Each structure stands twice: as structure tokens, then as C-alpha cells.
Amino acid sequence: MSQSTLDDDELFGEAASEIRADVEEHLDAARAELPDPESIWEVEAENTLGVLNALRGTLDVGDAEDHLRDARKWYTMGQRADAFDDADDLEEELEALTEAMEDIVEAREKVGELASTVPQLRSLLDDLHADAEAEGAGDDTDDVEEAEADGGEDEEEEEDEE
């Protein structure tokens, strides 16, 4: 084996180690950007919309998607270069983080949809209740007018009898 081949193998080994380290760093950074489990469970707000908006903000993955993309990019590069002796652990972690990220992003979208629906629903219910109260008040007004009409006749009859 020539000296240059030994140096190339040594350099390739170093590069492979650096690639693996880069993948692991990006995976760690992506995991660190994910929401804290307690932050999505315990939310302080004064109303439903506040809870939904707080939850939506908590479900923001920040730079986690970018870190995951970079991890996947370096992993793919290492795989294609056959630089990893054993990369099963990296592949499993990439898959687990990708699935978690997809679930979190999907949940955030659903919460966002619900947060935009709740004010519309409240407005609709306010209108329906206001209409029902107006109809009920109209019925009460009719009863009062009828009673006054009857009462007015009775008073006139009593005055005529005297």
C-alpha cells in the first residue's frame, strides 16, 4: 500500500467521523428545539382562544426543521459515500425525529384552524342568542300590551259603574 493510499484512507476516516459528528449535532439541536412536554400540557389563559393561541405558539418547532434537514443531508452524504461503519442508530433517530416533527406540525395546523374557527363560532352563537332574546322580548311586549289593553278596559268599566 502506498503512502498516499494510507493518507487517503486516514483522511476518509476523519471525514466519516466528522460527518457522523455533524449528523449527531444536528439531531441534538433539532431535539432541543422541540416543545417541552409540560409546555403543551399546562397552558395559562383566560379563555379558550387564549389557550389555543398559547398552544399553537408552544407547538412552533422553530429551527428544528432546519436542523433535521441538515442532519438528513449529512446522513445521506455519509451513506452514499459509504462512510459509516454502523449508521442504524442514526437512521432510527432520523426517522423518529421526522415522525415527531410531522406530528407536531400537523397538530399546530389543527390548533390554528380551531383557533380561527372559535371566534366565528362564538359570533354565530351570539347572533343566535340575540335573535332568540329579541323574539322572547317581542313575545313579552305583546303580553304586556294585551294586559294593558285588557286592564285599560277593566278600569274604564269600573269607572262607568261608579
Architecture overview:
The protein is mainly alpha-helical. It has one domain. The protein is 85% helix and 0% strand. It contains five helices and no strands. Helix 3 (48-58) runs antiparallel to helix 5 (88-161). It is rod-shaped, with a radius of gyration of 35 Å. The relative contact order is 0.10. The model has no long low-confidence stretch (mean pLDDT 85). Residues 133-162 have a biased composition (Acidic residues). Residues 126-162 are annotated as: Disordered. Residues 80-110 form a coiled coil. Keywords: Coiled coil.
Question: What is the gist of this entry?
Answer:
With 162 residues, the chain is mainly alpha-helical.
Observed structural traits:
162 residues; mainly alpha; 5 helices; rod-shaped
Supply the number of structural domains: 1
Q: What is the CA-based Rg, rounded?
A: 35 Å
Helix content: over 70%
Strand content: under 5%
Summarize the helix and strand pattern as letters.
Answer: HHHHH
Number of strands: 0
Task: Compute the separation of the termini in Å.
Answer: 137 Å
The chain-level structural class is mainly alpha
What sort of overall outline do the alpha carbons produce when their principal axes are compared? rod-shaped
What does the largest sheet look like? none
Number of helices: 5
Q: Poorly predicted ranges (pLDDT <50, ≥5 residues)?
A: none
Return the average pLDDT rounded to an integer: 85
